[in-house]
Amino acid sequence: MSRAEIAEQRAPRAEPGRRPSVLWSLGLFRSELVTVLRRWRTLALLGVLAAVPVLIGIAVKVDTGGGGGGGGEGGGGGPAFITQITNNGLFLVFAALAATLPVFLPMAVGVVAGDAVAGEANAGTLRYLLVAPAGRTRLLLAKYASVLSFCLIATLVVAVSALAVGALLFPLGDVTTISGTRITFGDGLVRAVAIAGVVALSLSGMAALGLFVSTLTNSGIAAMASTVGLLITVQILGQIPQLHAIGPYLFPHYWLSFADILREPVYWDQLVKNLELQALYVAVFGSAAWARFTTKDITA
Average pLDDT, stretch 102-113? Predict the structure, then answer.
């Protein structure tokens, strides 16, 4: 099948002489999301993310000898919440998200976002997609929406895998919050869903940055490598004590603030700052991506 035929199948049709409707736009978004999820690279990334909670759960189970008394204070290393896993398998969800958020989740999002536009240009399908009555702005919004959807899907893959492994290997029950109070398992599960939502939103700034990088080149590999490289660079900058003044302005700075949802009452200060910072990155790099994409000479 030729590149033109591939692009023609992916782009929904609008009636001649009429502007694309909302349903047509939703069809464009669905087409972009299906394209992302059908790629073997995307499936491999999701498989790796699903495997992380399994490895953590098995490691904790082996380390504690299958016992249930690993919730003491001597747990020291490892992700947050890891010392509570043997007492309650639900804590594996929180530990897995804390373990994957700094590196694995943003790297996966960086790969998908970096490939969004540059990958199409490299494959030769971008020009054919723009032949359809989508418009560059509508197409860019559809691509960003598909990347945001991947953020949510990737986060849920980690959370669901962790919940399944935690239920299989460890007991479930009432949850002890960071504040020391106890809440029911149902309330803890609701908070786990809220945490997954916050983690997905925390990746929105990274997604906008990756989309902007993707508009700067026609090489998908270069865009993905550059996005992941920027992630690593920012993570390093955030760990340098002499640069602590710029820390609050780096997009990963408040990522682990999702732990405050497990307090009683919930601490909102860091959570709100995180969402505001991500919104700022989305506004800045989303606008930059739009300005670049709408004026770019599409030759491939």
Answer: 93
Amino acid at 275: L
CA distances from 32 to 4, 9, 195 (A): 16, 11, 27
Residue whose C-alpha is closest to residue 214's, from 146, 270, 280: 146
pLDDT digits 0-9 by tens, 157-207: 999 999 999 999 999 988 888 888 888 999 999 999 999 999 999 999 999
The CA distance from 50 to 68, in Å, is: 24
Beta bridge partners of 182: 176
Q: Cβ(108)–Cβ(45) under 8 Å?
A: yes
Higher pLDDT, 132 or 141: 141
DSSP for 121-172? HHHT-HHHHHHSTT-HHHHHHHHHHHHHHHHHHHHHHHHHHHHHHHHHHS--
Instruction: Please tell me the distance from the alpha carbon of residue 120 to that of residue 118, in angstroms, as a whole number.
Output: 5
Closest CA to 138 of 21, 34, 280, 281: 21
What residues contact residue 5 under an 8 Å CB cut-off, 6+ apart? none
Residues in contact with 183: Cβ distance below 8 Å, sequence separation at least 6, in sequence order: 174, 175, 177, 191, 264
Q: Which letter does DSSP use for residue 99 in this model?
A: H
